[in-house]
Amino acid sequence: MKFIIITGLSGAGKSEAMNGLEDSGFYCVDNIPPALLVKFAQLCIDSKTDMDKIVFGIDIRGRQFFDDFYESIDQLKTMGYDYEILFLDCGDEILLKRYKMTRRNHPLAFDTNILEGIKREREMLKDLKVRSNVIIDTTNMKPNDLRSEIRDIYFGEAEIPNLVISVTSFGFKHGIPLDADLVFDVRFLPNPYYIETLKDKTGDDMAVQDYVMNSQTSVEFEKRLKGFLDFLIPNYMKEGKNHLVIAIGCTGGRHRSVTFANKVYDYLKDKGYRTIKKHRDSKLK
């Protein structure tokens, strides 16, 4: 069982860090009162679930409980629980800009200006920063930079989870899938719809697949499409994308699109990606 406690200055990126860890398989609990840390940790260990990586988010919003924090983490250590504290820091000027952009007030600026609230919080957290295992300064970081650094710290290349890829076939006459990241139009390929023996079949049938692929254009497109995906997917992963939707469309969504969706799915599956497949319109007439 591994516990990570994320804390630091408000506006420094705690939510983004927790989202990144949650996407990587951690169970995240935000703004838990420090006094409940030990009880929740014990509950996780005693339960029979498969939760073995837990993230606790602690920040100044729980200041009425904050005095209990040091006692709680000392108790975790005494009980032999493996935990790390990740502290997110950021320059005052950048924090001020972030608050002005979001038009939110600092939690400690209830009776003063934002910059004074930031200074108050920094003073309150200085001892916690000293006790932290990992400190990340997000002053010059974009959200993807923070996620990437967290993956490097807590996983390493071999443990970075694979991107989940959804491959969907569809018919343009029924509309493009709203969640599509990449859309490929295969209406330029030979159309089995006009072959009487193939009209009522779909791209799941070998006869339809053979007809569609019995064309140099189809063979060349398959080659180029696979090469394009080989280039794109690692770059999507590098940027922290966790779900990619590839939509392949023909006129009705029953023949050509299904054929190529099957081919792309098999290709990506063989390369080790976590891939799911859906033929949205294959049963429609």
CATH architecture of the largest domain: 3-Layer(aba) Sandwich
Q: Which whole number gives the mean pLDDT?
A: 86
Low-pLDDT runs: none
Largest sheet: 5 strands, parallel
H and E string: EHEHEHEHHEHEEHHEHE
Question: Largest sheet, order of strands side by side?
Answer: 2-3-1-4-5
Number of strands: 9
Going by CATH, the homologous superfamily of the largest domain would be: P-loop containing nucleotide triphosphate hydrolases
Q: How big a fraction of the residues is strand?
A: 15-25%
> What integer value in Å does the Rg equal?
26 Å
Q: Under the CATH scheme, which class of the largest domain?
A: Alpha Beta
Question: What report would you give on this structure?
Answer:
Keywords: ATP-binding, GTP-binding, Nucleotide-binding. GO terms for molecular function: ATP binding; GTP binding. The protein is an alpha/beta fold and 285 residues long. The chain has 2 domains: 2-159, P-loop containing nucleotide triphosphate hydrolases (Rossmann fold, 3-Layer(aba) Sandwich), CATH 3.40.50.300; 164-279, no CATH class. Helices cover 41% and strands 19% of the residues. It contains 9 helices and 9 strands. The chain has helices at 14-23, 37-46, 69-78, 92-102, 114-131, 143-154, 206-213, 216-238, 256-270; strands spanning 2-8, 27-30, 53-57, 82-89, 134-137, 164-171, 182-185, 243-250, 274-279. The strands form 2 sheets. The chain has a 5-stranded parallel β-sheet, with helices on both faces. Strand 2, helix 2 (37-46) and strand 3 form a beta-alpha-beta unit. Helix 4 packs across helix 5 (114-131). The longest helix is centred in the C-terminal third of the chain and has 23 residues, at 216-238. The radius of gyration is 26 Å and the shape is elongated. The model has no long low-confidence stretch (mean pLDDT 86).
